[in-house]
Here is the input.
Amino acid sequence: MPCILYGTLIGTVLPHFGECVTVVSMTFRCSSMWWSTIGWPQTLHNSKRPARVRQYVQWGTFARFMGLTSVDLPWSPLHAPVRAPVGEVHWREETERHLMHIALVAMSGVRAYNPELTALGLSLPGFVERGKTIASLPSLGLLTLAALTDDRHEVSYLEVDDIADLEPLPECDLVALSTYSAQIKDAYALARRFRAAGVPTVIGGLHVTARPKEALEHCDAVVVGEGETVWQRVVSDAEAGVLGGEYRADGSFDMANAPIPRYDLLDPDRYNRLTVQTQRGCPWRCEFCASSVLLSPRYKLKPPQKVGAEIRAMKEIWPQPFVELADDNTFVAKKRSHELAEVIGHEGVHWFTETDISMAEDPHLLSLLQQAGCREVLIGLESVNADALDGLETKRNWKYDQLSRYRDAVLTIQGHGIA
Here is the structure.
């Protein structure tokens, strides 16, 4: 009974003292039996939890110990309201607070350094400058994960050109890095720095999907495959202090459920274009291409109307953006390509994408693209050598059969005002 009385009194007074609840809860006297009943040692002493998570767990545990029947903390791990049993007193955080600060770090910039070439005086300035232009775009994957992150957590987006310039490290409770093979050594070095600072670290991307065991030598966790289906589990495990190992996607993600990327996290002045993904993978199986093998076990299409919604979100930060469709073969599905061109055309933007030479065989599509603001297409011809093309595709030999039509196809596309 004394415990319940004290609990009611403190439950009524504590809202006026904000975070003093942690101090009071630590100094409250009771028997060892009561400690073991509420499981305090397990929640309080998990040092792998982010500091703010530990604090809120202490708060919630103390509320239960005080005899409160329910909880009203939307950011609490208890996921229920904290209410004092007398006087309908609510425990609420009056100011915006977040459980974790999650830093999403994109390894950007161009890595063209070779010690032997440098010693010979070859610095490749033209390549580096061209590379800077090509690489001037944000990580669409990380912006998508930001959109999938619970509002209880704070998210920031950061691009790293040179890890030597990242000093000091940004303060955060979880860091997620996205990288390709060209930047993997820098990504591993940066992950080790965060780990040494006590920050749980996860890496995703094509390289670590192919070599997860290698990546785990440098970070706490690796996302293998598509990140959408495992990201919330990554965040939940980091919050609980148990992040680690491989988080493997099962390939079940439906592009119709893709969230609108967090373009609002970007400074548009940094970029010469922004990206929208309209599909994932490719139905063909070219022996040199990893997209359809690593990104997704099957070819997936995003509904065109959802693509339009993403472009409108992009226009909120950049009224007239130059858009790149981050696809491997945008017009491979011909009927759907017509609808996609019409939807993008309604947005009044200029854009470009990647596809194959077969688009030249569809005059209606070419007319739609010309009207829809398509300014350029990147087409992989692979080779003008018949022997090099023979057997390039593992499903069929279509590219080999197109060799004699290359010139006419290019002229047809250019004839519709598309570079």
